[in-house]
Amino acid sequence: MKRLSLFTICLIILVGSWLVLRFGIGGVVSVPIPASVIAMYMGLIIIAILVHISVEDSLFQEFLRPIRETLVDDRRRIRRRVIAVLIPLFLLGYTYSIIAQRASPPGSPRDAHPSPPLELTYKDEVIGTMQDVVNPFRHYEKDDPEAFKAHVENGRRVYYQNCFYCHGDHLDGQGHFAPYLQPLPANFQDPGIIPNFQESFFFWRISKGGPGLPAAGAPWDSAMPIWEDYLTQDEIWDVILFLSDYTGYQPRTFGEAH
Amino acid sequence: MKISKKRLYLIFACVLVAYAFLAIAPVFAQDATEAEYRPFPKIGSRNAAWIAAQLHLLFGSFILGVPMFAVIIEFIGWKTKDMRYDRMAQEFIKLCMGAFSTTALLGGVLVFILIWCYPKVMTKLSGIFGPTMIFYVVLFFGETFTLYLYSYGWDKMQGRHKGWHLFLGVLLNVFGTAIMFVSNAWLSYQTSPATQYGVLSEGRRKSWIEEKLAADPSLTPDTAMEGVTSHTMVPLHNETTGEFMGTVWDAVNNFTWMPVNIHRLVGNIAFGGSIVAAYAAFRFLVAKTKEDKAHYDWMGYTGNFIALCGLIPLPFLGYWLGREIYMFNNTMGINMMGSLFSWLFIIQAVMIGVLFIGANYYLWSGMGRIEGAEIYARYRPYMITVIVICVAIWMTPRTLSKISSASELSAMGGANHPHLGLFGLMTAKNTAVNIVILTTFLSFLFYRRSGKTPTASWGKVGNIAISSIFFLAVVSIVVIGIVGFTVPTDLRVNILTPYQVLVALAVMAVVTVVDIFMYRRATTSGTINWGEMTDRSQYVLILIAITFTSLMGLMGYARSGLREAWHIFGVMQDTSADAFTPLLSEAVNIVAIIMVVFFALVGFIFWLGLWGEKKKQDAAATAETAVTAEGDD
Fold this sequence. Notes:
heterodimer; A: mainly alpha; Cytochrome Bc1 Complex, Chain D, domain 2; 8 helices; 2 strands; 3% strand; elongated; B: mainly alpha; two-stranded antiparallel sheet; two-stranded antiparallel ribbon
């Protein structure tokens, strides 16, 4: 059997990687990967191929051989003509895909996470600095497990009376209203949400809701109500306890400095 | 009329000076009254200060980094009695000499801009740091004279004076490092004007308690101390009036001072190495003789090796600095990694990826000039694959909302991809970076072994041991990374991540020792054909230097921008027209301009050096011809 040329192998790797990302990982294994992320990965794969073929001169010449043959060898006349037609067609299709009008709305430009203020407030009353405020009921977890349980239960009540419509039965952001919201409600089951923030951050987000989001990172597009208008401070702290208790994730704390 | 090259340069320089004068002329037309801010014409105060500060830092980094490894190389030359090392170290210092005055000049420009455009801020800072500024001047004189003695005394202090010459080199580094530490105190204080109770001066401890008692009359001196430990963060300013209440040492020893010092110290070595390697690459590309090609190939290799040595610990040190910023202020930390500056760190990941891929590429290319290195070529595709997968993980954004359409977001069920989104978390990224570092180390190990055959009887066992160490290390790093998803952040940041780093460092240390013993009496089956490198590999060295420069510029934007609209975070607000945080796109443009100016200046300085060298060579050649002619007569 004729051995594949280095150029063909590289082409197979390139096309194969795209198929795996687009339909394998982004289809069979998981949900689709955004086109921008696939483009980023494909860029890296192209770099990897270029690195491999150009490290050694002999490999580089071997890689270039079929290209050179296609361009100058008369025996490759048909291949040359086919490619001469395919390249403009590909560019045409690609250009069309970029500029064609689509009916879908644009994506949300929101930041990864809003930038919290330095001070934590509740209805204009300063509670303390964002850095230092802790959940006043958190210590019950060790000191008085029964009391802690009662606060978690109260948090559960608050959550299912107010939050689950958007954030979902299982705190996974898949509530009844979720499909109609943009951005989608936070998914507390995601390991990158609760462990990355202090409880004071969650208090701020819950109490101020969408309208209380900062100027930095605007425009925001959140449907979250200003919960300090409806919930007491204790209820907000309780619901935060419930979020971490239900998901098993601990909000961020800071150890000793060094 | 034919204009000579020299005259052309002169005209060009005059035009530049005239333009610069015209550009700043309106400034002098303004009243020199007391003002909080004065606008800098055309480009604005912030951009002017930004460009001057970043250029000063880049040159400063170069002249502080190069002497560190120059003195080590000189020491190696002295001990091995190999004069090639001595000559290379001298060449490194020659590069520094031209850059030294430019650094000072840019420092002066920066101070003028700051005093003119930000008088109130400078009054505040000089009021706090006055004594350190005097100390800085003393150190600067010390560094200048030591550098001159070290450079000009190089040829004279050979032989029995070499020890003293090396002492001068060490002294030069002491002065240089001290200067950097002093200036780091000023800028790190602007970011974190607080320090821990345990290292605080007695005076500030007292005034802080008094402030607490005054703010809350229900407190007593005892109850005010409840919960205060040696790690408690104490602001250095009165929280009501904003008045500075600490000592100079409190301000110097602020919370982020030491992490910035260490990060920059190692960064200088990496940056200096990369610039030297780029210089050598340029000389290699224009070299006409085999000897020159061989010499600059060797110099480029050394520069890249030094850059790699600095690059390997840098991600860890950057992580430490980031951790300390989080510790100082959570809001600042979130802004850095999860909010305003989060996309900057994706760019950072791309650039560090370029650095690691580039460094490995250069090592693999270098194996092409070693006879007998072919046996390691078969591992290369696997190593490329590992590096690319790790870089892909490192540069995968956590939140994809900004780069996804509404339908893609709906398909993902939110802004995070349910599986790839995990790569956006630090535990995955730390795992990836540790594996990239180990793979780079493996590349270097192959390079070191190329063309050599171990004669140690336990060679086979040694190889099995080294392979097992690598395998176990990668497995532990990956397992720790996976566990990192499930534990509280505090545990991950303070225990698991340092443990991952320790595993990588331990592997490098142990394997290096085993490898040295294994190859101690190795037979050499192939020689290194210095100078037989592809031109492509030299362009990679230049790319590495450009990437380092851009990276430093972008990270400078992050470090400074993190303060947002504060000159001194939480104490002195920026109320100027430039108080807003510039967009990432604007920052990238400014950094690109800085990079071009930096390389233009560096190129000019190197060209001046070459010019002088050429003149000397021409004079020597003329003299030789004259002597030969006389002999013929």
